[in-house]
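FAQ
Q: What does a multi-component entry look like?
A: The components come first, one per line:
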Amino acid sequence: MENGEWRIERNGERGALNYKGYKITEESSGIFVEGVRDFHPVHIFECGQCFRWIRDEEGGYTGVVRDKVARINFEGDILQIQNAIAGDFEELWFDYLDLGRDYGAIKEQLIQKDAIMEKAIEFGHGIRLLRQDLWETLISFIISSNNRIPRIMKIIGAIAGAYGEELWLEGRRYHTFPPAGRLAASSVEELDVCRGGYRCKYIINSAKMLHSGVVDLERLKGLGTEEAREEIMRLPGVGPKVADCILLYSGTRYDVFPTDVWVKRVMEELYFKKETSIKDIQRFVREYFGDLAGFAQQYLFYYARENRIGV
DNA sequence: CCACAGGACGGCT
DNA sequence: AGCCGTCCTGTG
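Then the predicted structure of the entire assembly, as tokens:
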């Protein structure tokens, strides 16, 4: 089925549509997407790649993507996206949730590598790499440096609250993430209310460099991995680790292996059995996992963190 | 009061 | 190229 080719089958109140192999049913509360495999909200939203999805008591996740706020549930092979219409699925959610990729095939390849990967994949079988907005991912991971997840979420939420547009869902207020121009027009002093500390000046200066065109994020997609890394590392607050996170979690490059202190310890414990430099780890994974390095990193990291390996 | 956290930066050798 | 002190804030 080609992009945008919808087959509408109306049955009474419901409208069932097909989009790229998924069956979509639209209701007043939102949409249901049938035929979704390799998907587990906990694995996806709590594997460290995103900071704007909040879990509720019923196990649903509510978050803001671009100019939409939605709530996601999953059961069996049915994905429920509340506060979304069928058009949003084609425009936004299909791409954001990376539903065009066969994670079954990726897992099959990685499982063949070794018993470590097999175990990690069994544990995080429902992980998917979200294709997040490049600009928001950039700022998110500048904030992530020397920081823990709860605080990262708090700072990003504060930035959205101070600079973003209001969105409402079930009587609750949410905010979009502001565009680069909005932060470029601000100041370090103003941004300071978000409690980002010394990262605030990195954020403002990066926003200014992007807004003035000194660095062009659009250009990244046409570059090779090494060139793309070097390009975003020109931005203040972006070092090697943050650069790899930005490229991977925005869906720009998948042959990167973000190596923080956790991943380093995990690789040392599971693969090397001795202290190993980040450089040597990168050399190894590039050769060993190749184009699937980014996916392998995500399965390994989630497995290790949840099982407290490398502590 | 102090150590430390899912890094980057700048100054040093 | 590698090593190390410092950086803002929150938590223990």
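Q: Is there any commentary attached?
A: Sometimes. For this entry: The domain at 7-100 of chain A is CATH 3.30.310.260 (TATA-Binding Protein).
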